[in-house]
Amino acid sequence: MRITELDMRKTSSLKSLKLRDLKNNKVVRRRDGKGKMRLYVINKENPRMKAKQ
Predict the structure, then answer these.
(1) Angle value at C-alpha 18, between 8 and 39, nearest 5 degrees
(2) Which residues of the chain have a pLDDT value below 50?
(3) In the 8-state DSSP scheme, what is residue 45?
(4) What is the pTM of this model?
């Protein structure tokens, strides 16, 4: 099963989501398709923790 962007949480505070799993969560900056910088929380061990801002 492929997880789409719609399955990702959108939130005002990524810091609080990062603190849910300190060992595996990382906050990264990536460009979306339109050139805007977005902040993402990624977790390779538990993909349910994904979030973007």
Answers:
(1) 55
(2) 1, 6
(3) S
(4) 0.70
